[in-house]
Design brief:
The structure holds two protein chains of two kinds. By secondary structure, chain A is of the alpha/beta class. Chain A has five helices and five strands. Chain A has a single domain, classed as Udp-n-acetylmuramoylalanyl-d-glutamate--2,6- Diaminopimelate Ligase, Chain: A, domain 1 (3-Layer(aba) Sandwich), CATH 3.40.1390. Chain A has a five-stranded mixed β-sheet with strand order 1-5-4-3-2, with helices on both faces. A five-stranded antiparallel β-sheet of chain B has the order 1-2-3-5-4, covered by helices on one side. Classes of the chains: A alpha/beta, B alpha+beta. At the A-B interface, helix 2 and helix 3 of A face helix 1, helix 2 and helix 5 of B. The structure holds adenosine-5'-diphosphate and magnesium ion.
């Protein structure tokens, strides 16, 4: 699914990544635990999270996560948007809660990371 | 691949910069042509250990060494040390404060994640003296 379709489905406000609308998202992952993100998210993965601190951006960069969605309308501060810009990480805000946002994406055809395992062993 | 050794410092409780050293290490490994999977594993190990120094440790020193067939990351700090290393490596064990949990840490998965993403680790820690974690990741 393209990033642009995700923005449409989630009625999201894109805060960074306007040059990456054609980027392909292959799976979705929702978590508020950074170790989970580091362990499970990776290239091609869309991360949905309720946290809006700078560690979310850094965890996404470290794990090579493709894009980040902040749920239930939580607006990150300018510093965080600036960090995302610096690392070329697309980020957006959706008014929907984690459950609803995930459900809408699933309904639209996006699946979870279960078929894609990030780490070895 | 070129051989390289580089040292970085990590400040305890500096949550504004926490993770920046690992991102620098990630960029460096990428620029050296290390494969994405290896870069990812090394970056995750670096980041989890950097966050541990920021949250629990003292003044930290990070050393990255890249050899022909091995990446080594040494993360040392002069903080309070780890009481029971075996316990610290158990999934779910954490002494994180509510503030750390609020920013998404404290799941007790950091050290297990490092173990999982590395080929070998050595831990040395003494109460009141600090902690040294040495992480090895094979290249190919
Ligand atoms: N550098 C360190 N200095 C002192 N204690 C540490 C250090 N690193 C880890 N620990 C201890 O080990 C525990 C487990 O670490 P970890 O597996 O990364 O989980 P978490 O970071 O979620 O607490 C920490 O809660 C802390 O008590
Ligand atoms: Mg940790």
């Amino acid at each position: 699914m393209k990033l642009s379709e995700i923005i449409t489905i989630l009625e999201a406000d894109l805060l960074n990544g306007h040059d990456k609308l054609d980027m392909e998202i292959v799976a979705g992952f929702g978590s508020d635990l950074m170790s989970d993100v580091l362990n499970r998210a990776t290239d091609g993965v869309l991360l949905l999270t309720g946290l809006t601190n700078v560690q979310v951006i850094r965890s996404a960069v470290i794990s090579a996560t493709t894009a980040v969605v902040f749920v239930r309308g939580k607006q990150p501060c300018d510093d965080i948007i600036e960090q995302a810009r610096k690392h070329g990480l697309p980020i957006m805000v959706t008014p929907f809660t984690m459950f609803t946002a995930s459900g809408k994406l699933y309904e639209g055809g996006l699946r979870g990371i279960e078929n894609r395992s990030a780490a070895k062993h | 691949m070129a051989e390289l050794e580089k040292t970085y410092t990590v400040k305890p409780r500096d949550f504004i910069r926490a993770g920046e050293v690992s991102i620098q290490i990630q960029s460096l490994l990428k620029s050296m042509g290390v494969t994405p999977d290896i870069v990812r594993r090394a970056s995750v190990c670096a980041y989890e250990s950097e966050m541990n120094i920021v949250m629990y440790g003292g003044e930290g020193t990070f050393t990255l060494r890249v050899d022909q067939d091995m990446i080594m990351i040494r993360a040392c700090d002069d903080g309070p040390g780890i009481d029971d290393i075996e316990l610290a490596f158990q999934e779910g064990y954490s002494t994180a404060t509510p503030e750390y949990r609020e920013i998404g840490f404290g799941a007790g998965m950091g050290l297990p994640n490092i173990k999982k993403n590395s080929d070998e680790i050595q831990v040395e820690s003494h109460k009141g003296e600090g902690t040294c974690l040495v992480i090895y990741i094979k290249i190919n």
